[in-house]
Design goal:
By secondary structure, the chain is of the alpha/beta class. Helices cover 24% and strands 15% of the residues. It contains 15 helices and 16 strands. It has helices at 41-44, 72-75, 143-146, 170-196, 210-221, 238-252, 267-278, 317-328, 366-377, 397-404, 407-410, 418-422, 441-454, 456-459, 486-495, and strands spanning 18-19, 25-27, 80-89, 92-101, 105-112, 119-123, 150-155, 202-208, 228-232, 426-432, 463-468, 482-483, 499-505, 551-554, 559-563, 575-579. Strand 1 and strand 2 form a beta hairpin. Helix 4 (170-196) crosses helix 5 (210-221) and helix 6 packs across helix 9 (366-377). It is globular and about 80 Å long. Mean pLDDT is 90; it is low at 1-21, 26-30, 32-48 and 520-535.
Length: 602
């Protein structure tokens, strides 16, 4: 989309040296450091690389010999490689290894035959997983990745997508919670060592949505598995995310007749009203809300006048009431305490379609599907009755306490990252401000909690948080949403160059990747997966940047990008950073203690 200026803001600039990576970034010693305007790589066609230069290592054994690998010490008796064969992916030859760890953890590993430069990356899985996906995000245009320099692996988390009731099996709960990703890391490194005769020099984890939860779980439970962890839109509050947030969104948008109150055709009207109130708060009318916590939108402004018969440009009383519920989230009816950290942010309205707002009033929605699957088989110590429905959900403090019992198993909100830091690990957390699935305030709260427990100065030595205006869930949106966090992570891990500004680019398609997205499955409602998303099981899939794409920088929280008043509004070099106007010290809700150190459940 074209980004046009309504009003410009000026800001003085401080000098900082530019570090060129696959996706342009600045190096800085702390998130609060000042920065120069960012070079727009998409327009200048700069080609560069992230991390140190490492020589390619050739295989020392034939691919087929990996079928003989003994995996019993990792996955238990019966764990094995089921196939190992040469395949073509991304224009190059790979040794593709598939196998299973007991009881039913499936994995796939891709080992470059000619171009491995001693790096390993593991890809997280979105939704409730159940498939092995090799769709990679947050690495758009990354040269070492595009040159097939990484060994890559992924897992199905111990079940298939057809097993909606996999949570009935206690072991599969554990495998989904944390075990699958850890064991896959161990297996992949063993296979790498056998194939190349050496371990990877550097290991990275990259995931979004539940994959973001998996990323944080690795840093928290297994601090030595990866040198760098990239966690996008993390479903870190798993117990609340599906059982409370999605359940509330689905029920709130259901009328007495069982049909949706608000349908997708009403979302542009709501979104435009939000923009009318808050778009210019950052000094620029560009269709994006850059500081949504400073936007206090009142749905009442859209209320139809009494006696009005033309409701095309206004909302009925039922729609207004529903809209307020969607934004606010559930509260205990007696105490008024919030049961979620927040509802969706103002500015995210166009992303609600298909999630908790259907195209037609009687269409299915994702929120209902994911909530009931999770509630029936995963969220409770003892599963509810077979005829359990969303109508049985109670949004009370007592009901919340029942969900909290499995918080130490599924959730990845432990802010004590001392072991990860001492191991030299680096963590980048990122989230779209317009994410309709998972509130970005979850990521903000975790960032704050790590600082509270470890000290902000210590946190800033190994962790960064980036929030992307207009970005939907893991990809797409109204604003520039493609980004490369892998290259800055490589520079941080391998060169000790901490990242500052990251350049984001306008995607050629609204859904350019399935990275982190729920893709397929027999129970997904009409309209899922989102239009334009590639189907699963298509092999290795990398993002590409559109030529001359509009670009903007994003800065480490709590800084954000504002137009400098000079230059092209579609070029990242025309923006500078400024502190967000609203930076809460904490968020008051029933789960705020989840962000304190706790003992994991195994």
């Amino acid at each position: 989309m074209s980004l046009q200026v309504f009003k410009a803001l000026g800001q003085s600039l401080a000098t900082l040296s530019l570090v060129i990576a696959c996706g342009s970034s600045f190096a800085a010693t702390s998130p609060s450091a000042a920065a120069q305007p960012v070079t727009n790589r998409a327009e200048s066609n700069v080609t560069a690389t992230g991390g140190v230069t490492l020589p390619a290592v050739k295989p020392v054994v034939a691919c087929s010999t990996l079928t003989q690998a003994d995996l019993s010490s990792i996955g238990g008796a019966g764990s094995r490689v089921t196939s190992a064969k040469e395949v073509k992916q991304n224009g190059a030859s790979f040794c593709q290894i598939e196998g299973q760890l007991k009881p039913t953890i499936g994995f796939k590993v891709l080992l470059p035959a000619d171009s491995w430069v001693q790096r390993y990356m593991q890809i997280g899985c979105g939704g409730l997983c159940g498939n092995i996906g090799l769709q990679i995000g947050a690495a758009a245009g990354c040269t070492p990745l595009n040159a097939n320099g990484f060994a890559i692996a992924a897992t199905d988390m111990g079940h298939t997508m057809q097993e909606a009731d996999f949570g009935k099996n206690p072991q599969k709960r554990v495998d989904f919670a944390y075990r699958s990703q850890h064991l896959t890391a161990l297996v992949a490194k063993q296979l790498i060592a056998t194939y190349y005769g050496q371990q990877p020099r550097y290991s990275y984890f990259n995931g979004c949505s539940d994959g973001g939860r998996e990323a944080l779980m690795e840093a928290q439970r297994y601090p030595h598995d990866f040198n760098g962890v990239i966690a996008g839109a993390a479903a870190m509050n798993f117990q609340v995310q599906n059982a409370v947030y999605h359940a509330w969104q689905a029920l709130s948008n259901t009328g007495p007749d069982g049909k949706a109150v608000i349908v997708a055709s009403r979302l542009p009207l709501i979104h435009q009203a939000v923009l009318a109130q808050c778009d210019a708060q950052d000094g620029q009318r560009d269709g994006l809300i850059s500081d949504p916590q400073s936007c206090h939108f009142d749905p009442q402004v859209l209320s139809c006048k009494a006696g009005s018969t033309d409701t095309k440009n206004c909302l009925s009383a039922a729609e207004v009431t529903t809209l307020k519920k969607l934004y606010d989230g559930p509260r205990d009816p007696d105490t008024g305490e919030k049961l979620t950290i927040s509802g969706p942010m103002p500015g995210s309205e166009l992303a609600w379609a298909g999630v908790f707002v259907p195209e037609k009033a009687d269409d299915g929605i994702f929120s209902q599907t994911i909530a009931i699957s999770s509630l029936k088989y995963l969220n409770y110590v003892k599963n509810p009755a077979k005829d359990f429905t969303l109508k049985d959900v109670r949004f009370t403090k007592a009901a919340f306490a029942e969900l909290a019992k499995l918080h130490p198993l599924y959730d990845a909100t432990n802010p004590d990252l001392k072991a990860f830091n001492e191991a030299g690990g680096k963590l980048i957390i990122w989230h779209g401000w317009a994410d309709p699935h998972i509130s970005p305030l979850n990521s903000v709260a975790y960032h704050q909690a790590v600082g509270s427990v470890m000290g902000a100065a210590t946190r800033d030595k190994f962790e960064r948080l980036y929030l992307v205006p207009g970005m939907h869930h893991c990809s797409g949106g109204e604003g520039p949403s493609q980004l490369d966090l892998l290259s800055p992570m490589m520079n941080w891990v391998e060169k000790s160059q901490a990242p500052d500004a990251i350049v984001t680019y306008q995607a050629a398609q609204q859904a350019s990747t399935g990275f982190g997205q729920p893709t397929g499955g027999k129970d997904l409602p009409k309209g899922m997966p989102p239009k334009g998303m590639k189907p699963i099981d298509q092999g290795l899939q990398l993002e590409t940047l559109a030529p001359n794409a509009a670009s903007r920088p994003v800065y480490p929280y709590p800084q954000y990008a504002v137009y400098s008043g000079k230059g092209d509004v579609n070029a990242a070099s025309s923006y500078v950073h400024q502190r967000l106007k609203t930076v809460p010290e904490s968020y008051q809700w029933l789960g705020q203690d989840f962000y304190k150190p706790y003992t994991f459940m195994n």
